[in-house]
C-alpha cells in the first residue's frame, strides 16, 4: 500500500473519523455514508471520500461504508494494532487532565509513567500512577518500552525535558508547553497548541461570516 | 488580498510561526530566514516559503524575513488585531489548565467567563474569574460580547453545552470533550483532540523510521 504521500491534513482528520465511527458502533450502526460523516463532522462529503480513497476503495455507492471495516482500516493505517506506551512530564492541571483522559486505552495508547521535578509531588498518585522524579526517567523509559513523551511543564523547562526524553530514547514528543522545542532528526515533535486551535477557529469564523 | 483558498494545514501552521517569531522578538532578533524557521520548527523551508507566499512576498533573498513585519502580517491574517472574548464551560483539571494559560493575553484572546453545572463550584475562583452557573451563560455572553466558547466537560455533556453556546449566540466552539458535537451552519466547531495529536504523532514516527 502506498502511504508515503498522505498529507498531514488527512492524517489529522483520520482520528476524528475514528472517534465518530467508534460512537456509531456503540450505537449499533453498521454502515455510514460520506454524507452522514460529513454532516456530523462538519466536513465536505467529497473531501471525506477523497481521504478514504487514499487507502483503497471501501465505500459502496448507495450503501456507504461498513463501519467496522473502516475502523479496522483506519486503525491499521494509524498503526493502532500495537500498544504504544507514553510517559508524561509535568503534573500540573494539564498533566493531570491528560493522565485521566479515558480515550487512551481505547486507542491503544497509554500513559504508563508520570514525572515531575517538584520533590513534593514524588510518590503522590495520578490515575493510579506514582509520580516519579526526573532522574528515574531514562531507566523507566527503557524498562516499560516507552516510545512517546508528553510535555506539560512551563515553557521555560520544555526544551530541557525534551532533551531528557531524547537521551532516554523517546522517538516522538507531544509538546503542550507554549514554546517551540527542537529535537534531533529521527525524533518527531508535535506542538499541541490550543492557542493555535483557537486562532485557526477565529480565522474560519471570520471567513465564514464575511 | 485573496485569502479564501488558504488551506487548513496552512492556517494551522501560522500560529506555530507566530509563536516562534514572538520568541525571536523577545531575544531581539530582527530577521529570520526560512531555513532558520524550518530548522527550529521541524518543517521544510520550501514549505514555509510557500505558506508565506500565500500572503504576498515578504522575504528578501539572502536577507530573510523581517520578524516584526511577519508578525504583523500573520496577526492581521489571523485577525488578531481585535480582541476576542472567550467563555469556558467545565472547570475540571483541563478547564483550569486552559484558564491559566498565559498565552491568551498576548494573542488577543481572553477567557472572560467560566461556567460549571456543579453547584459546589459556583462562586469559586479560577484565574480571578468567578465560576458561574449555566443559567447565567446567555446573559453573560451578550454582556461581555463573547464570540468563542470552549468545552471542557465530559463527553456525555458536550453536545448539551454546545447547544447552550449556540442559543447564546456563540459563533465558534472549541470542543475538548472526546465526542463529536454538531452545531448549525454559521457556527464553526473545532475538535481539539489531543488523542488525535498522539495518533498522528505515532503515524509520523513510524513513517520516518521505516
Automatic annotation (TrEMBL), chains A, B:
Keywords recorded for this protein, A-Z: Cytoplasm, DNA-binding, NAD, Repressor, Transcription, Transcription regulation
Query: Where the record puts its DNA-binding region(s)?
Result: 16-55
What residues does the CoA-binding domain cover? 79-180
Entry-linked InterPro entries: CoA-bd (IPR003781), NAD(P)-bd_dom_sf (IPR036291), Rex_actinobacterial-type (IPR058236), Rex_DNA-bd_C_dom (IPR009718), Tscrpt_rep_Rex (IPR022876), WH-like_DNA-bd_sf (IPR036388), WH_DNA-bd_sf (IPR036390)
One GO BP on record is: negative regulation of DNA-templated transcription
Q: Which residues bind NAD(+)?
A: 90-95
- What do the Gene Ontology cellular component annotations say? cytoplasm
Q: Which Pfam families match?
A: CoA_binding, Put_DNA-bind_N
Q: Name one GO molecular function term.
A: DNA binding
Q: Tell where it localizes.
A: Cytoplasm
Q: Which SMART domains match?
A: CoA_binding
Q: What does this protein do?
A: Modulates transcription in response to changes in cellular NADH/NAD(+) redox state.
Family of this protein: Belongs to the transcriptional regulatory Rex family.
Known partners and oligomeric status:
Homodimer.
Name by which UniProt lists this protein: Redox-sensing transcriptional repressor Rex
